Structure formats: C-alpha cells, structure tokens
Amino acid sequence: MTTFREHQLEQAIAGLPRVTLGVLPTPLEPLPRLSQALGGPPIYIKRDDLTGLGFGGNKTRMLELSLAHALEQGADTIVFG
Question: What pLDDT sits at residue 56?
C-alpha cells in the first residue's frame, strides 16, 4: 500500500488532466443556528449546488476527469449513463 503525505496527494491530484465544467471549488457555508441548536461545535455545509450545473458536485468532478481522459485517448464520441 502506498502512503501519501498531504502535499504529495495534492500534487498528484493537481496533475490529473481535467475538462473544466463546473465552478469549483464550491464554498463551505457555516450553519450557526444548527450548531447552536445542537449545542455543539461549528457545523458547515459544502455548497455543491453552486457548481453551476444542475446535477451537482460529485457528478461534475467525475465528468471533468472522465472527459479529459477520453479526449486524451482520441475519443470523438462519449456516452454517459
């Protein structure tokens, strides 16, 4: 098993080819009333609804990587389900 340090992982991810589709990264939004109601630490929500596309964050990220890979392979037609 390969062990990565944080900076090594960031470099590996940054080196992946991408086709930009979304507005990323999306912001973290504090939820102070929920934090207060639960009497706990600060709670945040990741706003992947703000990627700019109707289908949300993880799908957008997957498509950015998949399309870049397909284009590198010379694909001229791509079908996603």
Answer: 67
Q: What is the pLDDT of residue 48?
A: 85
CA angle 11, 15, 18 (to 5 degrees): 135
Alpha-carbon distance of 72 to 78, in angstroms, equals: 12
> Which residues share a beta bridge with 45?
29
Rounded to 10 degrees, what is the CA torsion of 71, 74, 76, 77?
Answer: -70
What global pTM score does this model have? 0.64
Residue in the block written with tokens 């009497």: 39
* Phi, psi of 61, rounded to the nearest 5 degrees: -60, -45
Whole-number percent of the chain with pLDDT over 90:
44
